[in-house]
Specification:
- It is a single chain.
- This protein has five helices and no strands.
- The protein is mainly α.
- The longest helix is centred in the middle third of the chain and has 25 residues.
- The model has no long low-confidence stretch (mean pLDDT 90).
Length: 106
């Protein structure tokens, strides 16, 4: 399979950071090394988002709501950093959580 053109590659990279929309680049361009890099970073953020949501749905979640909201804001900031990196064509690991992307193998 040929690698996507740079504009297509950037779009796929951006979609990788938009929650469930990461399915699109996964299905369309996961063989491209740059897209794959951003997909793995996006998967880390998605796992964190789901974990925060699950924690928020528990009885303990109500007591931790300010902390959960701060963590959600952190995820949004990291997603924006990832999107900027994707648009600039950079493969730069996200701060704090990017190293966990190595656990995703696809």
């Amino acid at each position: 399979m040929s690698h996507p053109k740079p504009a297509h590659q950037k779009l796929m990279g951006v979609l990788a950071y938009l929650g469930i929309f990461l399915v699109i680049p996964f299905l369309m361009a996961k063989d491209d090394p740059t897209v794959k890099f951003h997909l793995k970073q996006g998967c880390v953020l998605l796992v964190i988002e789901v974990a925060l949501w699950v924690l928020g749905m528990t009885m303990l979640g109500w007591q931790l709501m300010p902390l959960l909201q701060l963590a959600n804001l952190g995820v949004v900031v990291l997603a924006v950093v990832g999107i900027v990196n994707a648009l600039q064509g950079k493969e730069k690991e996200l701060p704090l959580v990017g190293s966990y992307s190595r656990y995703f193998t696809f």
